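Exercise 7. Given the components listed, write out the predicted structure of the assembled complex. Treat all entries as one system.
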Amino acid sequence: MASSTNVSNLIAEQRSKSKRRKLEKLVPFILAGAASISVLTTAGILLTLMVETVMFFSEVSFREFFTSTDMQPLNRSDPSFSILPLLSATLLSTVIAMFVAVPVGLTTAVYLSEYATDKARRVLKPIVEVLAGIPTIVYGFFAFTFVTPVLREIIPMLDRTNILSPGIVMGIMIIPMVASLSEDALSSVPNSMREGAMAFGATKFEAVVRVVIPAAISGIIASFVLGISRAIGETMIVTIASGSNKNLTFDITQSMQTMTAYIVEVTSGDAGAGTTAYYSLYAVAITLFFFTLAMNMLAKWISKRFREVY
Amino acid sequence: MTELSMKKNVSIQEQPEEERESVFEAQGVNLWYGQTQALHNIHLKQREQEVTAVIGPSGCGKSTYLKTLNRMVEMNPEVRISGNISYRGRNIFSRRFPVEELRTRVGMVFQKPNPFPKSVFENVAYGPKIHGIRDKQLLEQIVEESLKGAAIWEEVKDRLHENAFGLSGGQQQRLCIARCLAVEPDVILMDEPTSALDPKSTMKVEELVRELKETYSIMIVTHNMQQAARISDRTAFFLNGEVVECDTTDRIFSNPSDDRTEDYITGRFG
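Answer.
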């Protein structure tokens, strides 16, 4: 009894120390400060992009940028600016990447979540995730020095730099993301769904295709959309392996330049500050920014809209 | 002719319970989860158009036994089974009896309602679709009949295309029964189908079970002894993985032959 009174006295004494109170009042500010760093950075980037983009559009018309087909920013006598060639390259490489990442990623996810034994899963999942840890420069190198030569054996008309090979390699890079996120979505489908399906004589595969995947579809689609966003923003692989021809085409054997690769080319010194070519960077960057922003928002919306409550 | 029909009537009336054709027959069934034995030497019969209640304290193996009948228990890779179970004379563990076929004949209703995250219609049409029925009109007919069979048609007929999760727990469970009826099973296994439901929904499911036994053989696991007494023809009492006693429900509840059964049903343990 006596000791408990002592303890409560001690506690009361400690509580009344003003140092402790001050710290307590400071904590929310410190935390909010940390949180605001990323918000302010985003705002700052967006502001810079907008200011410079306005400069660009004072020199090049909106119409030329979005509807003409010629992109020759460094032509001294008659430069022309059009985002369409860059856009076509970005879209093509993204489509190719998703052709690789979606089927492979999804089947990997289904295998890991539905078929693999615990032991196999414990070994395989980290290996798949190692793919995500490889630096993109290594992937770019791999595309240029290995995949392209192999593809040229099969498709002789393939250019030495082309959009097909980096597209495929980008897909490989995205597989772990699609696989890992889809696997999370599949494993969160409760077992009672599988049991329910199989209790009517569905085979395991039928249960997976008709019940488990539809039940996890929001997470799966969100993983695809995030994969697309990743592909749109990917830079190193395309810079190395797809060349710098600003080609408006849908021929995947040709060399093309994506939005990201264009930014790399122009920032690495070819355009002096204050030139139109320099400002065009910002117009391209802001287009890129809106694309990935839209994709991320779409992913969020999908996973919210189609979320199943089990 | 009169004579013949007379004779027929007489024979039906005089046919003792024992002679109803058995649907499931378990002989010496043992089951292990890894090293732990969950079922010991089970001998049990399920007869046609009867409701058999399986009662017993938690962990006595009654759900395990039920899931053994449609081989769902084998979804746990650690399970080993010995002994013999025949379904209408066919060994259910035989290679020549695909498990999908068994499960089509033997439907199951689970403890917690587990509708799929789809519309009411799609939930019921799921089974027939799996088995290759595509005709839209036929599917609509099956869905309506199944929902009527599960006494839920009136409640959901205007919301067939809404998500099944919008239904109440009791409605979901009857939807699951409808889903089960849609493939026209022979036997329905029910694993504590009312333990997650309120008393009113429980009553509805019980009424439904009484109706369904006209057409189907039903085996129901329950914790609720009044329920067993109300709806079953026959009761099996499980204890520690063994069948202590299996007899007509009247006899089990009025004059059990084993003391342990009496102790359990009078609430002295469990």
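Discussion: Chain B has a mean pLDDT of 88. Chain B has eleven helices and ten strands.
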